[in-house]
Amino acid sequence: MLLKLDRYIGRQVLVSILVVMLIVVGLDFLFKVIDEMSELTEGYTLLIMLGYSALNMPAAFYEFLPLGCLVGCLLGLGALASGSELTVMRAAGISVWRLVRMVLKPIVLLSLLALLLGEYVAPYSGALSESIRAQHLNQGTISARTGVWHRENGEYIHINVVTPEGDIQGITRFALAEDGHLLYSSNAKSGHYDNGVWLLTDVVETRFLDDQTQTNVYDAQPWSIELTPQRLKVLLVKPKEMSTSELYRYSEYLDDQELDNDRYMQSFWRKVFQPLAIIGLVLVAVSFIFGSLRSVSTGQRIITGVVVGMAFKISQDILAPLSSLYGIDPVWSALVPILICMTLGGWLIKRAG
After folding, report:
1. Residue 157 is inside which H or E element, if any?
2. Fewer C-beta neighbours within 10 Å, C or N terminus of the chain?
């Protein structure tokens, strides 16, 4: 009997979550397409832009899963409550916490799927999408729309394109003296990494002397730097699209270079604690169904779920810069909202039970 109920409730919740995720990820795809329409050029065509937007969907699924689980649980369990099925289950002696465990089973499966997407699929598809966009959108000059900036060993570096194979295109380097004046600038058409050293091709280097400038042209020039192709691919994607291992390694690298790594550590801890975040939001959803949202409409449940989910995300977004500002460990900016959700949800469920 309980096994059938497990499957029934699990199926109801899982279908509701997948429907919500389909809508949310679909809307994210649509908004990205609308946003990219203004960037269309002869090289960056509609088909390429649609491919770029589609490649960002795994990262969107991973990012919106906590919200999808919250709203999906409200809808799935809400439908059971509206049909008095939950009331019958309670009358049959099934406790609230037993129902919570039934709900969490499909959530665990989705969390494992999201873990695989976040660790393996989203970082690769995100880097590939940005590379494709940069290759077709970039016109060979430094642009705020494409490429990455980096600083290492006194050089300020801009790279227009990082290909999926790890090669680079459009490399611009600047070096400043201690008093702030420009020592030299260098532009290279492309670069290939081999045996720990970058080999730049078609290099034009300009050195700024006291009373003149000196320009040198090289067919090929070695460039020794700690920025490997793997780290470049990390730079190419947003922190939220990186895997936990990439975030940790790159944070350590930034720390070694005496650069600020708070943004990457905050994303790292968010990814580490995402399963707990999902469980916390699910507990809140279950407590609402057995409490204040027991007999309201589907629309009210959706609005409540979206409001609670957005409040959770905004709290994390606010705590992140505050932790940097006051020198608090980034782990707390991710963990505090989760602890609040779990405590509140557990307390409300205990009252309902």
Report:
1. strand 155-162
2. N
| DSSP-based three-state secondary structure for 292 | coil
Question: What DSSP designation does 146 have?
Answer: S
d(CA 33, CA 36): 5
pLDDT digits (tens, 9 = 90+) for 13-35: 999 999 999 999 999 999 999 99
3-class SS shares of the chain: helix, strand, coil, % to 5: 65, 15, 20
State the pTM of this model: 0.79
> Could you list the residue range(s) of the whole structural domain that residue 342 is in?
2-136+261-352
- Assess whether 298 and 202 both reside in one domain: no
Of 267, 261, 226, 271, the closest CA to residue 62 belongs to: 271
Asked if residue 250 is part of any domain, the answer here is no
Q: Domain count for the chain, please give it.
A: 2
Radius of gyration of the chain (CA): 25
Is there a contact between 144 and 99 (Cβ–Cβ < 8 Å)? no
| 97/103 Cα distance (integer angstroms) | 10
Asked if residue 269 lies in contact with residue 333, where contact means CB atoms within 8 angstroms, the answer is yes
**Residues 87 and 211 reside in one and the same domain:** no
167 in a structural domain: yes
Do the domain assignments include residue 130?
A: yes
DSSP string, 172-192: EEEEE-TTS-EEEEEEEEEEE
| Within-domain flag for 256 | no
Among residues 285, 249, 260, 323, the alpha carbon closest in space to that of 79 is found at: 285
- Specify burial of residue 327 (Cβ count, 10 A radius: 0-12, 13-18, 19+): exposed
The Cα–Cα gap between 325 and 318 comes to: 11
Q: In which element (H, E) is residue 205 found? A: strand 197-208
Q: How far apart are CA 301 and CA 324, in angstroms?
A: 35
How far CA 317 is from CA of 14, 27, 333, in Å, comes to 28, 21, 8
Same-domain status, 195 and 59:
no
Q: Are residues 303 and 194 in the same domain?
A: no
**Dist CA 85 CA 289 (whole Å):** 12
pLDDT in tens, 183-233: 899 999 999 998 889 999 999 999 988 788 899 999 999 998 888 887 777
